[in-house]
Amino acid sequence: MTIRPAERSDISAVADWNAAMAWETEQKRLDPQVLLRGVTAVLDEPRRGFYLVAERDGKAVGCLLVTYEWSDWRNGDFWWIQSVYVAPEARRGGVFRGMYSDVAQRAKQAGAVGLRLYVETENERAQQTYRELGMEQCHYFMYEQML
Question: Can the keyword Transferase be found in this entry's annotation (predicted)?
Fold first, then answer.
């Protein structure tokens, strides 16, 4: 398996995977044009983050997004893992683990202070995977207000 930064030629696939992930996890239908612009915006502005793509036998089989959160308490960045998607035929085959390992290595090299992600409360399989990778559930609830 190869893990690489996403390229402009990946925009459509990443957007499609994000739409599939939103449907699978939350039964939400995302606006395809907004999604395409959102994925493109990450590639246009590296300060927003970056996507990684996993390939097996030359075929893209998964992706994730990394964004940054500044922590004044720790004087450093947390790297947030978001928009994780693994193609159904590649699931349970180490794709996420490979991407996670790559992100962790990149974060250490960049001087990040930690990795974070959020997960659906019902997604026990993913939670178990995160625990097995050494992540711990934190003591915060997440709130949001859409504008």
Answer: yes
